[in-house]
Design goal:
Elements (H helix, E strand, L loop, with lengths): L1 H12 L2 H16 L7 H4 L22 E7 L3 H11 L5 E8 L19 E5 L19 E6 L7 H13 L5 E3 L2 H7 L8 H9 L3 E5 L1 H8 L3 H10 L3 H13 L4 E3 L16 H19 L8 E3 L16
Parallel strand pairs: 1-2, 1-4, 2-3, 5-7, 7-8
Antiparallel strand pairs: 4-6, 5-6
Helix pairs in contact: 6-11, 7-11, 8-10, 9-11
Length: 316
C-alpha cells in the first residue's frame, strides 16, 4: 500500500506541472468518452504511453469502410463473405486480394451481385502481407481486413465493430476468428506464457486505420515481413502488435456469443498447428522488431447491439 501511494503521488501530484496534466487528463475523460482512462491504467506503474500525433481524440467521419478480403483461391468462403458484408449498412466497397497468379479468379458473371462495388486485384506473388497493402482503391479511413477463414459474425456485429472503431480510430477493433474459437475449446485453459500471449494478441479480422497499412509495409523491417511470409500466417498478429506498440492503446475485441465452435476444418484453423506456429511467431516478432509488448485489453459484446424493432398497434 505504501509503495502504491508513493507511486500515485510521484506520478500525479509531486509537482504543479503533474497536477495540471492530471487535471487536464481527467477533464479530457469527461469531455471525450473515447479517451477514457480506466482505474487500472491510473494505477499502472508502466511508462505512460503517448498517443500518436496523427490521431487526435475525435469521432472518425461516418464515411463507411472498405472491406479487404485476402483469399488463397477459396472461392466458396470469399463469396460467403461478400454476401455477408452486403448486408452491413456502412460498407462502402469490397476489395478482393486474389493472392497469387497460379489460378485465375472466377469470371465476373460468377461473383455475387451486390449494391456496393466489388473489385478483384490479382497479386503476382502469394504473400500473406498482401493483406495490408494500402491499395489506391481504398478511399475510406476505415479498413476491415478479412482472410478466407470463416468468421462467425452477423451484419449487426460487423456494423457494431465499425461504430466502435469510429470512437477509437487509433486502435485495432477486431473479432475473434474461428481459429481462436477452436483453440478456446481445445483442452484446458492455457498456462504457458506463449499461449497467454497468443490469446492476447490474436484478433484475426478487424478494423484499423489505413495509415497503419503504410506503416506495416514501410516501417516494419524487410526481415520481419519476409519472416511472416515464410510462415504463411501470423500477419494479423504482426498488425496487432504493431498498432499496440505504436499507440499503447488497447486492442478492442468484439466477442460474439456464437463464436465458439468445436470443429476446425483446415490446417490454418487447427489448434495444435496454430498454438505452436503462433507461439514461435510472437517470440520472433520481438527479437526481430524490438517492439514492446505491454498492454491491457477491453472486450465488448457485439450481441447487445442487435436491433430490435418496435411494433406499434395502430388500433384506435
Amino acid at each position: 500500500m505504501q509503495n502504491q501511494l508513493s507511486f500515485v503521488y510521484t506520478r500525479y501530484f509531486s509537482t504543479l506541472q503533474k497536477v495540471a496534466l492530471t487535471t487536464l487528463r481527467v477533464l479530457e475523460n469527461r469531455i471525450l468518452p473515447s479517451a477514457i482512462t480506466f482505474a487500472h491504467e491510473w494505477n499502472d506503474d508502466s511508462p505512460v504511453s503517448v498517443a500518436p500525433p496523427l490521431f487526435v481524440p475525435r469521432i472518425a467521419p461516418n464515411d463507411g469502410f472498405t472491406a479487404v478480403i485476402l483469399t488463397h483461391y477459396n472461392v466458396h468462403s470469399t463469396f460467403n463473405h461478400i454476401r455477408l458484408l452486403a448486408k452491413v449498412p456502412s460498407l462502402s466497397k469490397i476489395i478482393i486480394v486474389w493472392n497469387g497468379d497460379e489460378r485465375k479468379p472466377p469470371p465476373e458473371s460468377e461473383w455475387p451481385h451486390i449494391s456496393r462495388p466489388v473489385q478483384v486485384i490479382q497479386m503476382k506473388d502469394t504473400l500473406v502481407t498482401n493483406r495490408y497493402i494500402v491499395f489506391r482503391e481504398i478511399s475510406t479511413e476505415a479498413v476491415l481486413s478479412i482472410n478466407d477463414n470463416p468468421i462467425n459474425c452477423t451484419p449487426e456485429q460487423i456494423e457494431f465493430g465499425y461504430q466502435i472503431w469510429r470512437e477509437h480510430p487509433a486502435s485495432f477493433v477486431g473479432y475473434f476468428t474461428n481459429a481462436v474459437s477452436c483453440v478456446s475449446t481445445f483442452g484446458p485453459t492455457p498456462k504457458s506464457l506463449w499461449s497467454y500471449l497468443f490469446a492476447e494478441a490474436f484478433v484475426g479480422s478487424g478494423f484499423y486505420h489505413k495509415y497503419y497499412g503504410h506503416l506495416f509495409h514501410n516501417w516494419l523491417s524487410p526481415e520481419l515481413r519476409n519472416y511472416i511470409n515464410l510462415q504463411g500466417m501470423c500477419e494479423d498478429i504482426a498488425m496487432n502488435v504493431l498498432i499496440m506498440s505504436l499507440t499503447g492503446s488497447y486492442p478492442i475485441k468484439l466477442v460474439p456469443r456464437n463464436a465458439v465452435s468445436p470443429r476446425c476444418s483446415n490446417d490454418r484453423s487447427n489448434p495444435t498447428v496454430l498454438n505452436s506456429t503462433v507461439s514461435s511467431c510472437i517470440g520472433d516478432f520481438f527479437s526481430l522488431s524490438g517492439l514492446n509488448y505491454s498492454l491491457s485489453q477491453r472486450y465488448l459484446d457485439a450481441v447487445v447491439y442487435q436491433y430490435i424493432p418496435l411494433f406499434m398497434d395502430n388500433k384506435s
